[in-house]
Amino acid sequence: MIKKRKKRRRTRWVIIISIWTFFLAIGFGFVTQYIMNELQSLVVSFAILMVVISLGIIFDLVGTAAAAAKVAPLNAKAARKVVGAKRGVYLVKNAEQVANFCNDVAGDISGVVSGTLAAIIVFRLMISLPFEQAEFYLGILLTALVASLTVGGKAWGKIVAINHSTEVILLVGSLITRLGKPISWIKKAEKNSG
Q: Which residues contact 94 (CB under 8 A, 6 or more apart)?
């Protein structure tokens, strides 16, 4: 009975996360494409590319930390009412879903979007350079740069996540708690007025 329930819950999670990924990818892709089309500056385009790569690295770090962290230290901090510890316990207890969302959904979306952004940047550079082989060489160079920054950043992130998993999860729990306070205030106001 318990195994069936777990299997149903996992199947439901797979369906939900697949649907979420589809819409998140559309949204993220639309926003970055719109920004890139509106901004013609190559410097700003590179900055946006670096932000997207950094987001992929950060989410990968969080997903790995959730999978590596132990509940006991976070429970002890939650008992002492350390801000974010309760959320941290929740993240670790649901490490399978957290790692899936952070490493796969956010990580893969940022990988696809960074590839698209790199292609747009190469196209813009190609237009501005008279060199005929510019597209070929710039495409290879920028692809290699994006790949090396992503892989190197994620390798560094995994080292941090595994060696400091409790601290990472506590920080993420604290951020979620602090970001959730304005939302909880709105929900309380709606509940009291309705």
A: 66
Q: Could you give the CA distance from residue 159 to residue 165 in angstroms, rounded to a whole number? A: 10
Q: Are 142 and 121 in contact (CB under 8 A)?
A: yes
d(CA 185, CA 194): 14
Q: What is the CA radius of gyration of the chain?
A: 20
Distance (Å, whole) CA 2 – CA 127:
61
Distance CA 87, CA 161 (A): 17
- CA pair distance 176, 155, nearest whole angstrom: 25
The model's pTM is 0.80
Count other C-beta atoms under 10 Å from residue 146's C-beta.
Answer: 20
Q: CB–CB of 92/69 below 8 Å?
A: yes
Which pair of structure tokens corresponds to residue 30?
């639309």
| Domain ranges, ordered by start, for the chain | 2-176
Is 62:40 a contact under the CB 8 Å cutoff?
no
Per residue in 94-140, pLDDT (tens digit) is 998 899 889 888 888 888 888 888 888 887 777 777 666 766 777 78
